[in-house]
Amino acid sequence: MRPLGNTYFVGFGVFFLTAAAVSAAACDGGSDASGTSTISGTSTTSGTGGTGGAAPAEPFAPQGCMFQVAARPEYLEWSESKPETSATPNIRRVRLGLGGNTKPGEPGKVDPATTIGIGWQTDDGTLASAVRWGSSPDPSTWPAENRTTGVTWLTPEGTINANGNQRMHEVYVCGLTPETTYYYQVGGGPKDSEVWSDVYHFTTTPNNPNTPVSIVLAGDSRGQDNEAWRVLQNRATKLGATMQLFSGDMINFAPDQAEWEKWLDLAWKDSEGKLSTLGQLLTVHTHGNHENHTSLFYGNMLLPQDIANYPNYAELFYSFDVGPVHIVVVDDYWVGFPDGDPAYIPTLTAWLDADLTAANANRSEVPWIITMHHHGELSSSTHGTDSEVIAGREYFMPIWDKYHVDLAVAGHDHNYERSKPVTGPADSPTPVNLNEGTVYLVCAGVGADAYGSGTSSFTDVSHNFSSGEFIGFYSILSATKTALTIDGYELHIDGADVKFDSLTLTK
Ligand SMILES: [Fe+2]
Q: What is the pTM of this model?
């Protein structure tokens, strides 16, 4: 790594995700397969599934950011935005995400308190990729220097309902102030003919562990027959959540861009056309078994990537702090299906050991550790005895035990099941006193079909939405420096959500 002023540019090599990787996912339920600082730039990732396309000559180093991002080989016409590049009014699906490295202690480690990734789509002819921002809703008050540019490319069309390549744009803004609301627009273009989007706003997360946080948790929106995903976004907006976690399976068929766009659209605007969470509330994802490591997954989402240390696994595992919580996000697909990429587990294990060792050493400052991946370790529902779920249980539980992870969240089974605090062997988890073990939570179903619920010796609360009286589940994870509360909610269309579970861990 070589420092340039206050920016560190990491070394780079062209990389590819192991192709073997990406066979179609196993199916669920038998269905499928201010004003401030300096700023930023953008882009994306590496390949798999290898749909061709030349790799870019070099990765993009966002202005003012201490990290780099790189295009995937299959992307087309990847380029940095230039002042003369064109802009047209067709800006849509403005979304927030994360950039940054993944190694503890490295400059540029992903941090939602001071950085943000912003992505959007346009017509194919628009090459302008700029963001401008300020501390009030009125763009005329924004300092001229609060502007930066990013990159753009075409994501090749998917193999289902092929509807053409998709023009994507990404910009990263760094050096932001924690717990601060920023107003922004995306667009750009030549001087005197710029085009800008609506004004969006977001609030950076706290980096002070003494600041309480409220995190909305959900997963498995695939299908989206009942617009539960949209209803939940209305709720998250009303709650004023710090951020949102999504445990995977956003879509049913990953090669279908229309599904990704439906997911984005349901969060972009509410039923009255008002801006919702997309572009305004940070939502952090993990890869489920339906995302299929497709370029459409990488192209539609903005996730951290460590191209210097983990060039083969961009956007697949990362961690960050939010107030008093350390959050670890992992793609568990090749844990359940190790033949897909035998190198993944040893790489992931080394990263988890390093990350959790550092997090444990920082417990006096950031006391809580929450992990998120897709296939839940402990479930008494449909997938509880699937071979890939058992493989994940045997892999993850000893690691979570070793580092005393407080809460492990997941989806995959479309129901709600929270365990007692447990430790011990994966095949016979032992209930222990509150605050002495790990609590395992499956909380999923915001658009996907309902699964039945069950109970096991480790189960504390189990619930399902098969009755049709409500349309899914979500949780609110509320943390202070001394308490972590898990509240489980039924999602009702009329807003009369019912809290049916609450557990508070204390330090
Ligand atoms: Fe799943």
A: 0.89
